[in-house]
Amino acid sequence: MSNGGNVDDEFFRYSLIEAVRVRPQLWMKSATKIRGSRRQLTSKLWAEVGSITNRPGAECRKIFKNLIDVKRSNDKKLKNGFLAETKPKWKYYEVLNFLNVKGSRLHKRYIMEK
């Protein structure tokens, strides 16, 4: 995996975010109501994301989880007033705002499911 400053790595991360955004079953709890085949569905969707980004689905899942963790950390700082005067400067913060849609909750289990 390349380092965080690489242009290819940045393109990959934006591509990854977009590929996940258009698959709400990976990040929206209300979109994953199929109980029996949830694991198969999420595995299939992560494989699709991997195919789009030319990386293994498991690697995409791990990197996306890391992006989410950083976003959550920034959200906590905003909520607690540490960043009240300014928006977070992290370059992926705004593009990940789809995770803040009212009625959706990121469900860690769906991302980490293997």
Quick structural summary:
This protein has 114 residues and is mainly alpha-helical. It has helices at residues 7-21, 38-53, 57-79, 108-112. Helices cover 52% and strands 0% of the residues.
Class from secondary-structure proportions? mainly alpha
Q: Helix share of residues?
A: 40-55%
The termini sit apart by 20 Å
Number of domains: 1
Count every beta strand, where a strand is a DSSP E run of 2 or more residues.
0
Q: Please state the CA-atom Rg, rounded to the nearest Å.
A: 15 Å
Major pleated sheet: none
Question: Helical segment tally?
Answer: 4
Q: List low-pLDDT spans.
A: 107-114
Report the portion of residues in β strands. Answer: under 5%
Overview of this protein structure:
This is MADF domain-containing protein. It comes from Romanomermis culicivorax. InterPro entries: MADF-dom. It holds the Pfam family MADF_DNA_bdg. Residues 15-104 form the MADF domain. The protein is an all-alpha fold and 114 residues long. It has one domain. Helix content is 52%, strand content 0%. The protein has helices at residues 7-21, 38-53, 57-79, 108-112. Helix 1 runs antiparallel to helix 2 (38-53) and helix 2 crosses helix 3 (57-79). Mean pLDDT is 79; it is low at 107-114.
What attributes characterize this protein structure?
114 residues; mainly alpha; disordered C terminus; MADF-dom; MADF domain-containing protein
